[in-house]
Amino acid sequence: MVEDNPSDVFLIREALKLAEVDGHIEIAIDGEMAIQALQDAEHDESAMCPDLIILDINLPRRKGSDVLRHMRISSRCAQAKVLVVTSSDSSRDREEMSSLGTDAYFRKPSNYAGFMKLGPLARNLLKGETSAH
C-alpha cells in the first residue's frame, strides 16, 4: 500500500479485513519509498513482488504515476495488480493512470460505508474477476 494519510491506511486495512483479503501488507508513506521497495525487489531474487499495489496518486516526494511507471517497467513486479485509491475525481488523473496500466480506480469516499466497498474490489482484483476503471 502506498498511502501517506494514516487515517486512510487504517480505513483501507479495515476494508481489506472485512472482505477477508488475507496477506501481508507493507506500507510506503511516499512515492520514493515505494520506488525503492520496487528497486529492492528488482535486484533481490529472494524478495517477493506484491500481488496487489494499492496506490494513492497524490503522494509526497514522488507521485503515484511515477511509482506506477517504475513498476510497469520492472522485470519482476510488472504484473502486479494496481488499485488506485485517491481523492481525485479528475478525468485527467483517471486517463493518465489508466494509460499506465491500472486495474481499478477507486475514489476515496467521505464515509466509512463507502470506504468498505474497497475490500470486495481488492478481493475481486486478486482473484482476477474484475478490471474496472
SSE topology:
Blueprint lengths: L5 H13 L12 H13 L8 E4 L8 H9 L8 E6 L4 H9 L4 E4 L4 H5 L1 H10 L6
Parallel strand pairs: 1-2, 2-3
Helix pairs in contact: 1-6, 2-3
Helix content: 40-55%
Tally of separate helices: 6
Low-confidence runs of at least 5 consecutive residues: none
**CATH architecture label:** 3-Layer(aba) Sandwich
Mean pLDDT: 93
Describe the overall structure.
Helix 1 crosses helix 6. The protein has one domain (6-127): Rossmann fold, CATH 3.40.50. 44% of the residues lie in helices and 11% in strands. With 133 residues, it is mainly alpha-helical. The protein has helices at 6-18, 31-43, 64-72, 91-99, 112-116, 118-127; strands at residues 52-55, 81-86, 104-107. The chain starts with 5 loop residues before the first helix and ends in a 6-residue tail after the last helix. It is built from six helices and three strands; from the N terminus they run ααβαβαβαα. It has a three-stranded parallel sheet with strand order 1-2-3, with helices on both faces. The model has no long low-confidence stretch (mean pLDDT 93).
Output the keywords.
133 residues; mainly alpha; Rossmann fold; 3-stranded parallel β-sheet; 3 strands; 44% helix
In short:
The protein has 133 residues and is mainly alpha-helical. It has helices at residues 6-18, 31-43, 64-72, 91-99, 112-116, 118-127, and strands spanning 52-55, 81-86, 104-107. It has one domain (6-127): Rossmann fold (3-Layer(aba) Sandwich).
